[in-house]
Amino acid sequence: MKKKHRLRFERYAPEDFIKKYQELVRDTVIPYQYDVLWDRAGNTEKSHVVQNFINAGKALRGEDTGDGFYGMVFQDSDAAKWIEAAAYSLAVYRDEELERRVDELVDIIEQAQDKDGYLNTYFTVKDREKRFTNLLEGHELYCSGHMIEAACAYYEATGKRKLLDVMIRNMEHIYDYFVTGKHGGYPGHPEIELALLKMYRCTGNEKARELAAHFIDVRGVDRDFYAREKEARDWTVWGNNPVDLEYMQSDKPVRELENAAGHAVRAVYLYTAMADMASLTDDAQLKAAADRLWESITKRRMYITGGIGSSVHGEAFTVDYDLPNDTAYCETCASLGLMFYAAAMNELECDSKFADAAERAFYNTALAGMQLDGKRFFYVNPLESLPGISGKAPTHRHTVPQRPSWYACACCPPNLARTIMSFGQYAFSENTDTAFIEIYAAGKVRFENGCELDISTGYPYDMDININAVKGGRLALRIPSWSRSFTVTVNGREESVTPENGYVYITINDGDRIGLSLDGLPRWNYPSVRVPSIAGMAALTKGPLVYCFEGADNEGDVVGLAVDTAAAAKIGEETDLGTDTLIADAYRTADNEELYSFDEPAVSAVKAKAIPYYAWCNRGENQMRVWMTRYPHPQK
Amino acid sequence: MKKKHRLRFERYAPEDFIKKYQELVRDTVIPYQYDVLWDRAGNTEKSHVVQNFINAGKALRGEDTGDGFYGMVFQDSDAAKWIEAAAYSLAVYRDEELERRVDELVDIIEQAQDKDGYLNTYFTVKDREKRFTNLLEGHELYCSGHMIEAACAYYEATGKRKLLDVMIRNMEHIYDYFVTGKHGGYPGHPEIELALLKMYRCTGNEKARELAAHFIDVRGVDRDFYAREKEARDWTVWGNNPVDLEYMQSDKPVRELENAAGHAVRAVYLYTAMADMASLTDDAQLKAAADRLWESITKRRMYITGGIGSSVHGEAFTVDYDLPNDTAYCETCASLGLMFYAAAMNELECDSKFADAAERAFYNTALAGMQLDGKRFFYVNPLESLPGISGKAPTHRHTVPQRPSWYACACCPPNLARTIMSFGQYAFSENTDTAFIEIYAAGKVRFENGCELDISTGYPYDMDININAVKGGRLALRIPSWSRSFTVTVNGREESVTPENGYVYITINDGDRIGLSLDGLPRWNYPSVRVPSIAGMAALTKGPLVYCFEGADNEGDVVGLAVDTAAAAKIGEETDLGTDTLIADAYRTADNEELYSFDEPAVSAVKAKAIPYYAWCNRGENQMRVWMTRYPHPQK
């Protein structure tokens, strides 16, 4: 089969669910984050992002740098992710004022670039002698990566080259240092690899591709690099351990990796680049490694919500089947990274399992990262929240029970914004002869292969999808793994189709009306007994949505609820959060005064109400659980 | 009622269960720990304990200190706890060689004491100028406390005063510094307070009592003490945070404390001294605080095994109802400390709840701290062990799935040894007119009030206790809270008795034969729904023993087992570990290949086998669970 590639982001104009989210990002998140970059947002920590670029420009011109650098070593990346989100927004929603703001920021960034192409405000303002002396922690290559992504997106959205040219010069500077100059080392936080491949796709620049290949190829070969680097410098950012090789993803050449390990975001960014590179080069070893790591995550190290990274210690993967609910890390960025990885794998191999995981990550953990009003954000997305313990016990300090308004480390909110604004990249793909619908979403989509579709659906709530073929072609429809049955109709007549690797293929003519009905029933999910934290429990899903039980809907207590999985859950009324509800038969255990008792506590039959996980914690601090105890004695 | 006090330790000569443990300590643990102190034990980390004392003596004489100091800042306390265990052993089991070894060590310790009475090898060898400049971390007062306890025990066991005189001089030195000299501050690790009260009881020395009162009274009054102390010094041991006031138990005067907080061992050592002091002085505020803290622990912060300290972060208490099984800390020393606290509370107030908790701590967490052969020790005692995750995931590094042979920080093994050897202190108490049996144990006990008993019982396995009154008197028998029924007979005739605060009182004559039958049935225990980690689960107990399910008895998998609590568990065959077993109806969930599945996994009815928790992990690394999932569908 011909290789498929992601839909170009400007080719999808959403309606309904995704449109509402994009409008929220456009109208609330992008303006708010813009104010944060400029330190004009109230009630939040100073970000200093734009001022850092202004001060770097002054430093280069030999002027007084005023209040110098402020923030995290990777503070520049917030500007990059904001520009990228704005670019995606501009591709669908023209907005002169927003474009002016981006142009203004690009001018400031250009001024912060050194003559040799170097671009990083932390090192330019603070100490230019330290450039590239701390790849372990310095995040220069990470920041360049994000700015490269932003530059490509803005160029593709508007045709404007200024930032792209800045970043090509920056890429060439990095190329000269590492490839031509034969300096050792590789990025402490992978990101630039996938960005360079985006630049290659966007511009055809061979140096970008070569530099990506270089960083992928040298990683983990010189295992002692970070230790020697640390030995040679007299400064540190956080005192990271250079010999925790597995954590640093420097323990072996990437083609030999077996298990998803280390910092979860870094891991999936690296694996994304590996998959992208394997697509470009047909490198069988790289593809095999990317496949193994995919299995490692999705078969042994992923939460049902698509969350990854079980532990706050290093925001990292841990070991197989270690998936605690209440102390989970599940960083929003990690689930976004899982979507990037899925999209890359999806190009490498035609199997619906990749879109299954991307969909799981998006509709659950990624969207849960943002309050429904777009104003507060979760960095950490646990599957159980316990006010009194969550955010308080030392093991639970990271699982705060309410979304904060902004973070000192603000990676997640702009990352989510750019991903929502480019949702078409994950929902659709194509090759020269087939248009793929990976994730169902309402709106108009124009494939490069000529196919044009107008899709109506209440997805992710309603599992009936109606497609109007404005221009026909060969269409591939993903049958999600959660859908136990489906019917496909063309102009009202049912088609007899059998999925191949999770897709059904039909050839349609201009004007055809295609109907797809997926299984929209609430379903109980049962975990493997290999996962100790949830063995014997059950969780509810409907379509792509994972549901959770919140105290707000259940008399303040969900820990004392035990669900009866013998009965199917029913779809209940809509909430004022704009979601539906699922209603399950359950039993509530009375609150026993005694910590431990010989007397089996009294139970009473109740209806337990669940809402989609992405909408949790929009009604104040309260208990929340995804995985529920099952009721022991339904016969009573 | 007249106040009761602990039995003097030399007055109990055990038989059967406790005798076997004491013989194990006498024959294996004390000799092994002696070799460790002298660095003669193979296969373990160097301890250097005796050499530190030798080198400190050299330092005081101005000689070359050779290899100097080695080990933890509190390394001296290992010698103290070993001497204390040896003293208790000598009180029951005469042993000239052991006594010679103690005397030899006492001579070495005496040589390490400075002329002014100061005694601590860390500071004497390394830097005498730093004495008492780091109460936060320096552990000088902690080490003095343990050596005071050792000195009192050795004096009481043998009548030998040398170490006692050394420690009286040391106490006077500390008194001069803190009381006469008005230096501020209080012990970073409480321990000396309870030791000083032991010294007062043992010698009547008023300064010891005054100094204990001083440390109790000033604690938490000057809240900024540790911060100022840190400011004033240019060195640190571990970099402890001086302003984490609740953790340091320095947030408020002890009489105002509400919740058990901070480092669990330090907490219960402090509370023990508070209760002891309240007994001595009838200080109502101190008693009220000791009561509140007791309730805080036993009603909201204690595991069913008598383990305390939910988190590895600071080995500390956390928040109410935060009792995770797999990441529990439950340090062996903390449960021993809970026994000390219980014994002190038991003198303050006549209620069987104190012995209930002491018994729970002893027969479960404390004994689990030692391998059945006395050669390996747990510091951390989780209620769930998961090879593959335990000891490996970063959140589980501390819950190693096998007992190590010795620790760099070797506080627990000698602490357990001394407690086993002085078990009579916890099992019996008395006042001038009543002899109390707090915890049933076979053997001969001679109360100071004249009562002499010869007790036969298979406790903690057999709940029939037969008591031969060698000399009669008024006897109080504790009716444990776990015993739902009981009968008392005197010379075969059933007595009609009603417990008062958990004790039944009978007056017996010389030669009477008393029978007590307690409830020895296996029972399911149900937790409060306030404890999220175990809500909806069940645990098995029989008498004072908590049982656990190990993979070794259950086809290697206990996570996949769900017990049917509708059926009572039955007592099964004895194991070759010397324990009995409990057999529960259960269902085994098949190992589903899929991480998450819509298909309810197949289950099969099985008999699940449990052994006493204290005997877990004596057959290699394997899964273990105390709290079990309950089976959802018994009707099938």
Largest sheet of chain A: 10 strands, mixed
How many H/I helices of chain A?
A: 16
Largest interface: A-B, 70 and 71 residues
Radius of gyration of chain A: 25 Å
Low-confidence stretches of chain A: none
As a percent range, the share of helical residues of chain A equals: 25-40%
Tally of extended strands of chain A?
23
Task: Give the quaternary arrangement of the chains.
Answer: homodimer
Global outline of chain A: globular
- Mean pLDDT of chain A, rounded to whole units? 95
% residues in beta strands of chain A: 15-25%
Distance between the terminal alpha carbons of chain A, to the nearest Å? Answer: 57 Å
Helix/strand-derived class of chain A? alpha+beta
Provide structural commentary.
Two copies of one chain form a homodimer. The first copy, chain A, has 636 residues and is α+β, with helices and mostly antiparallel strands. Among the domains of chain A are: 429-518, Immunoglobulin-like, CATH 2.60.40; 523-630, no CATH class. Helices cover 36% and strands 16% of the residues of chain A. The first copy, chain A, is built from 16 helices and 23 strands. Chain A has helices spanning 16-37, 49-60, 76-92, 96-111, 121-126, 140-158, 162-180, 192-203, 206-218, 225-232, 264-281, 284-300, 332-348, 353-368, 412-421, 424-427; strands spanning 5-6, 12-14, 384-385, 428-430, 434-437, 443-446, 452-457, 464-471, 473-478, 486-490, 493-495, 503-508, 513-518, 522-527, 539-542, 545-550, 561-563, 570-571, 582-589, 596-597, 603-612, 624-625, 629-630. In chain A, strands 3, 14, 15, 16, 17, 18, 19, 21, 22 and 23 form a ten-stranded mixed β-sheet that branches. In chain A, a hairpin with a 6-residue loop joins strand 7 and strand 8 (464-471). In chain A, helix 3 packs parallel to helix 6 and helix 6 (140-158) runs antiparallel to helix 7. The longest helix of chain A is centred in the N-terminal third of the chain and has 22 residues, at 16-37. The N and C termini of chain A lie far apart (57 Å). Chains A and B meet through helix 12, strand 14, strand 20 and strand 23 of A and helix 12, strand 14, strand 20 and strand 23 of B. Strand 14 (522-527) of chain A pairs antiparallel with strand 20 (596-597) of chain B, so a sheet runs across the interface.
